[in-house]
Amino acid sequence: MCSPNSASAFSGEEPMSGRSRLPGGEIRRASQRRTRLAAALPVRIETPWRTGDRVQWRDRTGVYRRDVDEENAFIEIGERLYRVRRAELRSG
């Protein structure tokens, strides 16, 4: 009669031990044992800016002009035009 662990020996699997192992089957070093998964990043909901909207960027209030690409936009503060990351803009 076969023991429960002998079936896994025939299939090429290692029997389960009390320690987690690396994918190659090696035992983890002490510095690798107590690792935690990274925390999930908070989901940012992006505001759909329109031309003429008032926005704040770095403690300054300006006017949203247009998108440059998916990440950047032009805003006007005073008489100057700035290219800024859309993620840095707030409602003003």
Rg is 28 Å
Measured between the Cα atoms of the first and last residue, the distance is 77 Å
> What is the helical fraction, as a range of percent?
10-25%
CATH level 1 name of one domain: Mainly Beta
On the 0 to 100 scale, the average pLDDT is 80
CATH topology value of one domain = SH3 type barrels
Biggest sheet, spatial arrangement of strands: 4-3-2-1-5
Give the amount of beta strand, in percent: 25-35%
CATH architecture field of one domain: Roll
> Counting H and I runs of at least 4 residues, what is the number of helices?
2
Alpha-beta content class: alpha+beta
Order of helix and strand elements from N to C terminus: HHEEEEE
Overall 3D form: rod-shaped
What is the number of strand segments? 5
Largest sheet: 5 strands, antiparallel
Which spans of ≥5 residues are poorly predicted at pLDDT below 50?
6-10
List the main descriptive attributes of the protein structure presented here.
single chain, 92 residues, alpha+beta, SH3 type barrels, 28% strand, rod-shaped
Folded structure, characterized:
- The structure is a single chain.
- The protein is an alpha+beta fold.
- It has a domain at 38-92: SH3 type barrels (Roll), CATH 2.30.30.
- The chain contains two helices and five strands.
- Residues 6-10 have low confidence and may be disordered.
SSE diagram, text form:
Blueprint: H1 4-10, H2 30-33, E1 54-57, E2 60-67, E3 72-77, E4 80-85, E5 90-91
Antiparallel strand pairs: 1-2, 1-5, 2-3, 3-4
Structure in a nutshell:
The protein has 92 residues and is an alpha+beta fold.
